Amino acid sequence: MSFVEQFKRLDLDDLSMRIYSCTSIDVERALQRPQGNIESLIALLSPAAKPYLEIMAQASYKLTRQRFGANLGLFLPLYLSNLCANECDYCGFSMSNKLKRKTLSEPELLAEINIIKQRGFDSILLVSGEHETKVGIEYFKKVIPIVKQHFSYVALEVQPLEEQEYNTLVGLGLDAVMVYQETYRPHTYAKHHTRGKKKDFNYRLSTPDRVAAAGVDKIGLGVLLGLDDWRVDALLMGHHLAYLEKRYWRTRYSISLPRLRPCTGGVTPKVELTDDGLVQMICAFRLYNPQLEISLSTRETPGFRNNLLPLGVTNISAGSSTQPGGYQNPNTELDQFEISDERSADEMVIQMQKSGLNPVWKDWESNWF
Amino acid sequence: MLTIAGHQFESRLFTGTGKFSHSKTMLAAIEASQSQLVTLAMKRIDHNKDNDDLLSPLQAMGVKLLPNTAGARTAKEAIFAAELANEMLGTKWIKLEIHPDPKYLMPDAIETLKAAEVLCARGFTVLPYVHADPVLCYRLEEVGCAAVMPLGSPIGSNQGLATEPFLEIIIEQANVPVIVDAGIGAPSQACKAMEMGADAVLVNTAIASSAAPIIMAECFNTAVISGRNAYLAGLGGVVKQAQHTSPLTQFLNV
Ligand code: SF4
Predict the structure, then answer these.
(1) What is the rounded CA–CA span in Å between residue A150 and residue A173?
(2) ipTM
(3) Residue B180, beta-bridge partner list
(4) pTM recorded for the entire structure
């Protein structure tokens, strides 16, 4: 039984009502026993928790340091291709967008790898648009062994694949798969995904099941904050996480909390997530799940990122480019979205050390196991 | 209502049959406990006698019998005891207990997992008695056990919930009922286990070795009900105020 069946049993309107009817008493109770308790997550994500933000931040800070020490993992996205056979109205890679399309050849891939390695990164996130025929399993089967020769941790953020395909890639060195649901509200999902295979809400929703069954070390979940009410989407992601953790207990989990950014031909956020809302969300997830990895992208501004670093985040990217070949030839016409924090990895490291945090370039070597 | 392998129990207190001075006291204590699941050791059942003084009254009370494999030191012996129980008592429910160590009767994790795998495959409803080991409980779930029975402290020690931090993890993670077994020595400890969210507790020594087993059985019954209700109501408490010396959210101006 995949999460799809469990999801069908959830009454989304009722969950939404419960979030909005929480009181300060519910929040205080949640602060007592936040861990692994979905009722507590409801309260911590609710508007009633706002006056408790400092208390939540203090607790989240302590828990994060207790569980992860002062360490922050560094990774970089490597865009393989901006080809896409889907239409998502918030994304610059959408099929109908007129932009130069590109898929990295082997020499181009190696050139990108060289630059990233020189900057010190050892953890890589391979990203592409969703184009099954041109950037599908055969392409990944070629690319992953090449990448694996240079990086000890290889994550993939591409279209959903079949279990057997994930399994093949694990054999070639794949460590992690990020698959963001974007929104857990089927109606909103349908509105934003108008063409292509990504339209299939349930196929996407059952992807983490297939990833876990294939024996991938880490799964990343995420919602695109701004497509619908972020509190409800975050709670549903919490449900998804709880389901996966119980069922596939050998797997590690991470979440990503991207806020909708302006992009070529894209939509503006429908429901704005303010800075304090994002802080509340990070802290709520940390209190709910102390071992969860939380990653922070360069979508946020430098000043805000500095302040978020100690609050519960465990992995960050720095000096990112969001276009294929962008490390070798920086220009912005092929970008997926605009980034906000343009600082280099070196600058980020200095900032981390100022905050008493230790940059970690490498923390895994699957070849040893 | 607690459901294990499709069978429903109104009472979340499970009891045992060992250590009582008379079988009459045992029966009266079980009755007073309102327990609906009673475990008995296969090693005590006499092949040559009809065992009627023990079995018939229990059956007449309508309680479900849960034979256990106490005495087994290996998976092989436990599987044999389970098959024997099936033949003699006509039940496929089995409390899997394997303790090769005669001193503390510590459950053997490796043999227990092996035996559980075989018995589940043969259609038994297996309730394994184990150390409070969260990973082992996951593994037992995976092979098909209907519940897990982690210990609170060494069998018969009345030391209570010495394994509390691990029980908490097991309770949080389990997809099957968690029955805290062994070591519970006082009604307050049973109540605590239920407050933590355990699905049931199994108590034998604390009742059987009490000076007044029938009264003690009643006490355990009410303690388990209270603990369960407290868990359902949700425990309240006082929020510890954070130190505001260096606020972490000042940049938000909230
Ligand atoms: S979000 Fe993904 S699937 Fe949608 S258009 Fe962008 S790259 Fe394609």
Answers:
(1) 11
(2) 0.71
(3) B201
(4) 0.85
